[in-house]
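retry 2 of 3: previous attempt timed out while embedding zinc ion. Reduced batch size to 1 and resubmitted. Inputs unchanged:
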Amino acid sequence: MLFRDKSFLAAALACALSLCSCAKEPMKGVIITGQNNHNWPVSHIALQRILEGSGMFEMDIAVLPPAGEDMAGVSVDFGKYKVVVLDYNGDSWPGPMREAFLEYVRNGGGVVVYHAADNAFAGWEEYNKIIALGGWEGRDEKSGPYVYWKDGGLLKDTSPGPGGSHGARHEYIMNRRIESHPVIDGLPERWKHATDELYDRMRGPGDIKDLLYTAYSPTEKGGSGREEPLVFTVEYGKGRIFHTMLGHCGDTLEDNPAMQCVGFQELLIRGAEWCATGKVSRKVPSDFPTETEVSLRKDYKESGR
Ligand code: ZN
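retry 2 succeeded.
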């Protein structure tokens, strides 16, 4: 084929590229980190790799100042983002940032609550509605009931006591608790999660919208002896919230089984996509864990990508 001039060639090439490019523009998201009782310098990199590795997201990182430093001027331009991933457990955000965050969620923003982000801000009432359940940081019966799965439904238990605990880390079975939801459609009813903490005795307003997965917290591991809600959605205004209690961060990116778990990664990506769009476009990956076998992606990369 002959092209008469270069501009025609360029136009033809651009046309061909746009036709064959099935990848959409990645959606913008932000990971808020910088203070945590967990290993945030590793966890935020793992979260970024997993989400960007899906090809669906381009993640900014907002590293807030260290504990005790002046936060007065700190802000995040939430309106720029389709999803906000919370990897933060630390000092209070300044008032304008708190207000901007609530406005973002009320107006339909997407929020992923990741692991110890549900330890944060025990005294911030609206934040606790957004996370639905939280732990530690002085939480008790004033924070809301204990919420756990019993006799085929979620039970709200108002008995007094501290909110938030966990036993020794171990591998455990995740139990699906909903017939259908974009985040879990196609995923197995039961699958084995790699070694992780299992948050139990969490308390809060407890207004879970859709409970996706629970796991049994065994007393012999120091747990509650209850079936604990670990992965669920919350509604706040027009906003979509995806809360995963999974993913206790290890010492290094290489030694980080809870976040290397394919189940953790797939739920994170699907949860983030659902927060951003209300839909999930992904197929179930072939290396998803089974009921008997855990499955890790040590490099946080999907096979074939
Ligand atoms: Zn942890």
